């Protein structure tokens, strides 16, 4: 596959992280190099490189996700190149520009908004590299048509975000909540919009209302300050819906500590994602339900689209949308099982399972239908069944 030669000046100027695939490696131990140095390393480490963007601050779930993708790419004979950047339109463009300048052979992309996709498409076409989207669907029909017309775009992996928002808010309505607070993504984030659409429909069905909303809260201390003001101005509040739990590291312990301080055990919480403090929130009686589990797995399917294309065994004849199941946890026991089997240092799909289920160049019996079926069957029960001998 041809790639345009990038200028030495661009290459020397940019910084990224080359992951070596050590399971459980901390952020502090990750080796930061210039992209020129990283590119030299990847020539030795693998026959191809996949580029991805990850946040500036890495929590346990994000570290597990990086470890999972690193292992997947290395199992296929390649290396993963990571650019740490904010999930904003500007951060998106800069991250993928740097990865392409570093000479990656393909990209797995998480877009901050549909509006960045035409520019990413142009960059990938210019570099002549395949790319896919994870965690997202393209909602703008005009942009979707433009992206799907590109021969380098392979498709997306996504979750039913509307259903996630609806299901969790419905559980709040069934528990008697009437006045809820929303912590969500920035306006324009398509995933957040879909989750809130589901929330709004459940609110209408159960006669609930959102008394206040807070968006793109970066720090747990800011979430605490915002919620404290609500407890003062809206003492009738009885529920909190957090539509993106990994957006604000530490938000659950911060909020439950605040509710303890105000003696508000009556306030119930639902959350999308499985962040720090989830088990304690269930044990303390605050948490009704959590939806997620897709984070550590979704990018594996998206990256596999790119890997198979690079290895000249494409899984689909044209771009494809692949839905990944989300898990619903409703008890402390559910949380224990999830972390025991899904975020325990062992990927949700081991190298041998990847060769059997993901890599058509290793298993010629893999079809587009079998690949999609693997994604649809992802849940805690199938992970436990596959890994019951691995996890003690």
Descriptive account of the structure:
- There is one protein chain.
- With 392 residues, the protein is an alpha/beta fold.
- It has 2 domains: 205 residues, Response regulator (Rossmann fold, 3-Layer(aba) Sandwich), CATH 3.40.50; 131 residues, 3-Layer(aba) Sandwich (Rossmann fold).
- The protein contains 16 helices and 14 strands.
- Strand 6, helix 6 and strand 7 form a beta-alpha-beta unit.
- Helix 7 packs parallel to helix 8.
Keywords:
disordered N terminus, alpha/beta, six-stranded mixed beta sheet, Rossmann fold
Any idea what the radius of gyration is?
21 Å
**What number of domains?**
2
Q: Percent range for helical residues? A: 40-55%
Q: Structural class, from secondary structure content? A: alpha/beta
Anisotropy-based shape = globular
What is the terminal separation in angstroms? 44 Å
- CATH fold-type name of the largest domain: Rossmann fold
> Low-confidence stretches at least 5 residues in length (pLDDT < 50)?
1-44
The CATH architecture category of the largest domain equals: 3-Layer(aba) Sandwich
Biggest sheet statistics: 8 strands, mixed
**Secondary-structure element pattern, one letter each:** HEEHEHEHEHEHEHEHEHEHEHEHEEHHHH
Mean pLDDT rating: 88
- How many helical stretches? 16
């Amino acid at each position: 596959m041809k790639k345009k030669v990038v200028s030495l000046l661009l290459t020397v100027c940019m910084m990224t992280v080359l992951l070596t695939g050590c399971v459980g490696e901390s952020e502090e131990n990750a080796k930061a190099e210039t992209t020129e140095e990283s590119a030299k390393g990847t020539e030795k480490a693998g026959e191809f490189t996949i580029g991805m963007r990850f946040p500036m601050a890495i929590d346990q779930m994000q570290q597990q996700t990086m470890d999972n993708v690193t292992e997947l790419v290395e199992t296929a004979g390649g290396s993963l190149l990571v650019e740490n950047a904010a999930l904003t339109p500007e951060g998106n463009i800069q991250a993928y520009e740097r990865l392409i300048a570093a000479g990656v052979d393909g990209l797995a992309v998480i877009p901050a908004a549909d509006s960045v996709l035409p520019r990413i498409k142009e960059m990938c076409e210019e570099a002549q590299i395949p790319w896919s989207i994870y965690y997202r669907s393209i909602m703008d029909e005009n942009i979707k048509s433009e992206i799907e017309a590109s021969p380098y775009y392979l498709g997306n992996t996504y979750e039913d975000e509307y259903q996630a928002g609806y299901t969790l808010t419905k559980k709040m309505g069934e528990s008697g909540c009437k006045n809820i607070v929303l912590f969500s993504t920035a306006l324009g984030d398509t995933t957040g919009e879909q989750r809130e659409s589901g929330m709004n429909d459940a609110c209408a069905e159960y006669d609930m209302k959102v008394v206040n909303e807070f968006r793109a809260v970066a720090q747990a201390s800011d979430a605490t300050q915002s919620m404290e003001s609500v407890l003062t101005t809206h003492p009738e509040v009885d529920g909190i819906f957090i539509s993106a739990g990994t957006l604000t590291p530490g938000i659950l312990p911060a909020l439950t500590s605040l509710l303890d301080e105000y003696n508000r055990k009556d306030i119930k919480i639902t959350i999308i994602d499985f962040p720090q403090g989830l088990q304690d929130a269930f044990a303390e009686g605050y948490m009704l339900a959590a939806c997620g589990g897709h984070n550590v797995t979704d990018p594996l399917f998206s990256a596999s689209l790119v890997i198979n294309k690079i290895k000249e065994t494409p899984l689909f004849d044209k771009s494809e949308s692949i839905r990944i199941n989300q898990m619903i946890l409703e008890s402390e026991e559910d949380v224990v099982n999830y972390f025991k089997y899904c975020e325990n240092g062992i990927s949700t799909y081991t190298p041998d399972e990847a060769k059997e289920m993901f890599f058509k160049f290793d298993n010629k019996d893999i079809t587009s239908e079998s690949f999609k079926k693997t994604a649809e069957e992802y849940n805690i029960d199938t992970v436990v069944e596959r890994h019951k001998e691995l996890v003690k």
